[in-house]
Amino acid sequence: MSIGQSTGRFNESLLKLRARSYDNCQSCGQKLPREVACYAGYDAEGGPLYVGDCCKHLMVELVSHIYWWWENDRRCEPETSLWRYMDFAKFVALLESRSLYFSRADNLGDLFEGAAGFADRRAEWDAFYLEYFRESVRTAPGRTEPLATEYVEREAARLLKEISLVGERERRTTFVSCWHANGVESEALWRLYCPPPVIGVAVQTTAALLTDALGDPKIKIGRVQYVDFRKAFAGFHDRIFWKRKSLSHEMEVRAAIAHHDGKEAVGVLRVVDIEKMVTSVVASPFAPSWFIPLVKSTMERFGVSLPVIHSELLAEPFF
Question: What is the per-residue burial (b if ≥16 Cβ within 10 Å, else e) of 117-143?
């Protein structure tokens, strides 16, 4: 089989290797040059490979070219501290189901989920990608003679329409679990998700623990990129990881999964080992004194043992 022919045959090991690899050849450790695709595939013994041109000779089956720089900006380091703030009812649901809930993207409450940009700048987006697709059609591999202008225009318009339809469809078939990346608590997020008199908790984990708990390499985990839609557009790929700059205070890391079952589900559950995923449970600083004992007894009822700690926002100052 020619190394130039990609098979698209990802197994679980290769998916996991790709998920934790970005800008380094996983064979020799060499830094990968930006704007140059690397390769995902298998060696002669069927082992997974994620390599650059430096180690391409080790590959006997090319599964896919990887344009890694498209994903690099949303990379979330394994040790990144993550928080999920929730009211007490959602915490009980987590304990009872032993599953993380993923909400369908178009139900997250943001009209711009998966959007490319502002509607009044659509003409700019269309013009840019029409020219991009014209060039792609003209220079497609295997072309030996110039193409008719009418054909190029028709194909470019078709491709532009397709990416718009994909964007709309992905809002209804992509499901998201949202987390806050921060080394410390956020009073703003306590007030957003558990505003008094609502009582709740924040569960803490890390990007590595979340990845391991979900255990599915098809679930993409990454940082949200915040963009000023007056000056720029969302990226062409993985638009579910782009949001308006006005929401940058969220410092969001999200796990996203495509789910197609022919039904209009508003959410899906993914089973996790809660005790391996969660490092601690923090009680809301606005909760009454009886709340922590209630959290502990509720976890005991569901057979879950986790440290429950007071919010650091309750610390006393001195002057």
Answer: beeeeeeebeeebeeebbeebeeeeee
Whole-angstrom distance, CA of residue 66 vs CA of residue 136: 18
Residue 1, pLDDT score: 44
Helices 88-97 + 291-301 axis angle, to 10: 20
Strand-pair category, 81-87 with 200-206: antiparallel
Measured between alpha carbons, how far is 207 from 199 in angstroms, rounded to an integer?
26
Residues ≥6 apart with Cβ < 8 Å to 300? none
Question: Is the separation of the CB atoms in 100 and 270 below 8 Å?
Answer: yes
**Residue 68, SS3 per DSSP:** coil
Cα–Cα distance between 13 and 200 in angstroms, integer? 38
DSSP state of 5: S
For the chain, state the CA radius of gyration.
23
Buried b / exposed e over 297-310, threshold 16 CB at 10 Å, is ebbeeeeeebebee
**Rounded (to 5) percent helix, strand, coil in the chain:** 35, 25, 40
Q: Where are the domains of the chain?
A: 12-72, 81-108+173-314, 119-171
Q: Which residues share a beta bridge with 242?
A: 225
Ramachandran region, residue 35 (left: φ > 0; alpha: ψ -120 to 50; beta: rest): left
- Name the β-bridge partners of 282: 202, 309
Is this model's pTM higher than 0.70 or not? yes
Give yes or no for a cis peptide into 197 (omega within 30° of 0): yes
Q: How distant, in Å, are the alpha carbons of 38, 68, 282 from that of 29?
A: 13, 15, 39
The predicted pLDDT at position 262 comes to 61
Phi, psi (rounded to 5 degrees) for 218: -80, -15
Tokens found for residue 301: 């009822």
Q: Return the structure tokens found at 248.
A: 């940058």
Which strand (E) or helix (H) includes residue 277?
helix 274-277
The neighbour count for residue 196, using CB atoms within 10 Å, is 11
Query: Residues 223-279: pLDDT tens digits?
Result: 999 999 999 998 777 889 999 999 999 999 999 998 877 677 899 999 999 999 999
